[in-house]
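Database export, one record per block. Field names are fixed; values are copied verbatim from the stored entry.
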Amino acid sequence: MANTRKIITLSAPLIIFFALCFFLFKGLYSDPRKLDSALIGQSVPEFSLQDIYDPEKQYDASIFKKQKLLLNVWATWCPTCYAEHKFLNKLAEKGIYIVGMNYKDNRSKAIKWLTDLNDPYKISVFDKDGMLGLDLGVYGAPETFLIDSKGIIQYRHVGDLNAEVWRNELSDRFEKME
């Protein structure tokens, strides 16, 4: 009995060490941009948010039930959002319907941003406190969701949206949506 206890006591640190090594090794080969969303296949959560330009104008989840679209989460404090903004304008010029969600930001800075850099969004909602972002599982900006015409989230992309990402990850998915 004493021998068994001694073996367990001596082997426990070794077992813990190997378990830790396994998880660290596994983490080396994971893509930090691949963040699965529990909302894939579900409706956009209910919300009520102000328009970025007009605080008197309110939007709710019905804005996602008209046609297939991109929901782009962005902020002026996000340097990667600045990098992706030109590409969003190109997509808008091609007729892609984009809803912008300004996330945990300053309204006046956001309006200046959209005025200076052109506004690619058909609708811009202001998520000052990040509550819709929280409901969507947003980790930060930028993030882009593909949403079908029934308001169902079909895909989530974390990181900047650029020509390569559009071509390799999103374009086909977007085209196949209804």
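Remark 1: The helical segments are 2-28, 79-93, 107-117, 131-136, 163-176.
Remark 2: The domain at 48-176 is CATH 3.40.30.10 (Glutaredoxin).
End of record.
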